[in-house]
Amino acid sequence: xxxxxxxxxYLIWMALFIVIPLLLVVYYAFTVTTPEGxxxxxxxxxxxxEPIYLRVLWRSLALALISTLICLLLGYPVAMIxxxxxxxxxxxIMLLFVVPMWMNFLLxxxxxxxxxxxxxxxxxxxxxxxxxxxxxxxxNAAVILGMVYNFLPFMVLPIYSVLSKIDKxxxxxxxxxxxxxxxxxxxxxxxxxxxxxxxGITMVFMPAxxxxxxxxxxxxxxxxxxxxxxxxxxxxxxxxxxxxxxSMVMIILILLSMAIMSFFEDEDKEATLW
Amino acid sequence: MILSLVLSGCKQDKPxxxxxxxxxxxxxxxxxxxxxxxxxxxxxxxxxxxxDMYVKIKSGGSSYDIIFPSDYMLTRMRxxxxxxxxxxxxxxxxKYLESRFMGTEFDPNNEYSLPYMWGTMGILYNTTxxxxxxxxxxxxxxxxxxxxILMLDSQRDSIGAAxxxxxYSLNTLDPQELTEAGNLLKQQKPLVLAYVVDEGKDKMVAxxxxxxxxxxxxxxxxREENEDLAYAIPKEGTNIWFDVMAIPKGAKNKDGALKFMDxxxxxxxxxxxxxxxxxxxxxxxxxxxxxxxxxxDLGSYPEEEDLVNAEVFVNLGRxxxxxxxxxxxxxxx
Amino acid sequence: xxxxxxxxxxxxxxxxxxxxxxxxMVYSFNDxxxxxxxxxFTLRWYVELFQDRTIMTSLYYTLLIGVSASLIAxxxxxxxxxxxxxxxxxxxxxxxxxxxxxxLNPDIxxxxxxxxxxxxxxxxxxxxxxxxxxxxxxxxxxxxxVLPKLRQLNKHLYEAALDLGATPGQAFxxxxxxxxxxxxxxxxxxxxxxxxxxxxxxxxxxxxxxSTLSITAYSMARRGINPKINALSTIMFVFVLVLLVxxxxxxEREHKKGRGGKNGSKRxxxxxxxxxxxSQFGSEWV
Lengths: 274, 333, 286
Prior knowledge:
The complex is a heterotrimer of chains A (274), B (333) and C (286). Chain A has a domain at 59-224: MetI-like (MetI-like fold, Orthogonal Bundle), CATH 1.10.3720. With 274 residues, chain A is mainly α. Helices cover 75% and strands 3% of the residues of chain A. The relative contact order of chain A is 0.12. Chain B has 333 residues and is an alpha/beta fold. Chain B has two domains: 2-118 and 242-302, D-Maltodextrin-Binding Protein, domain 2 (3-Layer(aba) Sandwich), CATH 3.40.190; 119-239 and 309-332, Periplasmic binding protein-like II (D-Maltodextrin-Binding Protein, domain 2). The N and C termini of chain B lie far apart (53 Å). Among the domains of chain C are: 56-225, MetI-like fold, CATH 1.10.3720.10; 233-261. Chain C is 76% helix and 0% strand. Classes of the chains: A mainly alpha (274), B alpha/beta (333), C mainly alpha (286).
């Protein structure tokens, strides 16, 4: 239990199925293949820093960030309520959160089209209530909605599993010591749930950044996002080098920002938790 | 039931044919009939796009005996030496194929392929929403139909429509012409409701848009579901496309693949497939047996003179990157 | 009152999550191939579904891969999380960063690089490669679910158990595992969900004759997804729901008979200490 050797099987697995494929990506990113042969080059990277691609990157980051934030705002209360005593069948509620995701993704997204269309279910409902119609399909809002819909459980579940085991004694003690409920939340519950929040953010933000089906179907393909760009390179254009370079840049960008975050996080974590 | 499927999958006594086709692109009872008649077991898999299929075959990790690429993909695979030659003598039913569909540009002597289905690119429109005569690509740039137009989220097709409108070739390699097409698409962007892929046909059926750039096969599906829809091939020219049958290099059951091709072009079988898929068959014997209203439908089977300006997509090689850049610019515009 | 508002909020979220599912179920009774029109009520997709051998084999492989990949990933991932939790410094950071890569990499990059790896290693693409690929992209989600629970764990719990005379094995199985169970179950659920839903990685790492529902559905897109898939989704959904209800009723009954002691005592708990890790969850549903 004290030993880190428990990692060994995983390390082997990672070396085989994550690191080696990653080296392949690196190889493609740094090479350019022309009819004359394959040469080492930075061309794929310099190309990515052209304004048109940076704009794509910027837009993807913004959309993913907004979606993650909304997931957190919507999901945290859900996780708290589930961990509280409003429901007695917690495992059922939790399962109900993931069951929709077991239905085919493409079908669910098509269903959203049918809901959000001009004459879709939502507008039929709204106009029957004589409310103004809503035309959000093929806008950023629809893309964000699609992302939130698809990634919400990935935010709720890790937060819930952490909250469900917080020692109620700590919470009660804080109350007994005179903290009001806001203070109990900000000073006790939320800090204790941070590991779950960090996991949730990771599991939502990263896939949201590289999804391409949602932006294509609900955004009407009006804007290229980074995921579309990469998919396009690998499948349509056949420029694996450029595709690999883009995804490498993304990986490095995000790992760097996470390293910076964990630098701060770790220090106060060690101090406050243990 | 599931168990029996798995068990039957384990039996190795019969020769096996591995087929790789588009999803839902064959009347599956035909597979069973083929198995019964030829004593060959069929393992049937499906793919979603030419590109998916190409990457899979290129990797060399899969073992298919017969594949169904589209024309431009066939050219690419042929050029990259990924295909086996076929022996027409072993496919006697090829005599039923219309002569105009034999020896097309992408495979001049039918050394590698036989057509499976064919069609055109055109404009699907809702007659209750469009009063003008639809006979030109110009209508897709008409401000009157702002936010009622669906374009295709596909580089070759959307840029192709712009090129045709400008009077250029669909397969142009001229950067100047491509830039013009790109500018035209940027101009058009405010009028476009969405760049769609497969969901476009359902949107047209639901009356969510007035005009859509579409392929004839999808148009046939949409018109069947909604009578108000019509399909037109613009006078400036169009793209004529083929989905063909070919044998990838290293196929283990070449003989079975040839038998399968021959079987699919037996007139009665070809007829069933055409009826099931709703796509146009290149098989003349099957075509004459189709119901009159299908056979005479100009959307699926246009007059030959309407196709004089029609071009087949050819593989562009490295110029494809130029298309990709233009398309990304249009999208980021 | 607060409870009532809390419930309303969760129900609202459920409406959001289940709206598309309802739409999808409605279409499974639509007598038209297109979702653009309503062609009248029909049950024919349900009849045709069971005669469609492509869909039935895909269903079989989807469930087989989903269950085995999530189980194996849960075991490897949980053990790995224990190791990561006990390591320090740059080693830990490095392992964590590599763990993020499958989450971070776009599916298409993971898919193609794994495919090239398998082909290069001369492993025949098929069931085995599909399973390996699924386990690979599942593990990080298990680790990310289990790690927070480990951080939450009281450091002295394990030592206390040893002091009280437990063997290290007993301390681990009787003390640590129950404590982190919610994280393990969460991880397994997420892994199963990802497996069932994945298209891109599955497509490129599978071989002839082995196809999942996602592959079948996506490849139908050009021709219009056949409503048979809607029908299948509806059946799967109803099946899961019925299963939930049955398990619930059974638990309720056991509870009333007084045999479900551990469930019963939990009822008195208020607030954040309630648990679900020891329910039949892990063994029966996933």
